[in-house]
């Protein structure tokens, strides 16, 4: 099963956007995420509906953050991009006729639900401000500056 990296990619570009003084175009965000601008516009549309970003058309336009980083949790972002599956595991068959497989599904299903609930709880405890603070600490520890960042968005 292919892993969904949508959340990781969106968090990446949102932190780049937080460091930029200029709006980010869908094209520049797509380059940072290694995807198509149409995919970015779809993702950013969900973030706009949630009130996390805003967009402006025309020359000098693009995407900007529209609320403080401290007001946005990772869970908020996860939900705004469509709440993709958090775990890349699942049942072999969803509705098995075999009683053994039904028992396996019941045991695994409970464990999967518990793991996902715990992960969602943890994502709700971490904000974009927390990620930004971690980034800045890494920047300082590494002796870097914002200008050293290899790919600005």
TrEMBL record:
One of its GO terms (molecular function) is DNA-binding transcription factor activity. SUPFAM superfamilies: Winged helix' DNA-binding domain. GO terms for cellular component: cytosol. Pfam families: Rrf2. This is Rrf2 family transcriptional regulator.
């Amino acid at each position: 099963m292919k892993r969904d990296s949508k959340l990781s990619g969106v968090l990446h570009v949102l932190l780049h956007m937080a460091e930029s003084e200029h709006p980010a175009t869908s094209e520049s965000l797509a380059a940072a995420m290694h995807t198509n601008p149409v995919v970015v516009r779809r993702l950013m549309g969900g973030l706009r509906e949630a009130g996390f970003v805003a967009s402006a058309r025309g020359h000098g336009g693009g995407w900007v953050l529209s609320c403080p980083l401290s007001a946005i949790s990772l869970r908020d972002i996860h939900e705004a991009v469509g709440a993709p599956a958090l775990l890349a595991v699942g049942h072999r068959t969803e509705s098995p006729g075999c009683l053994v497989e039904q028992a396996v599904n019941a045991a695994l299903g409970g464990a999967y639900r518990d793991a996902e609930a715990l992960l969602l709880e943890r994502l709700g405890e971490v904000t974009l401000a927390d990620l930004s603070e971690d980034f800045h600490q890494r920047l300082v520890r590494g002796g870097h500056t914002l200008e050293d960042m290899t790919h600005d968005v």
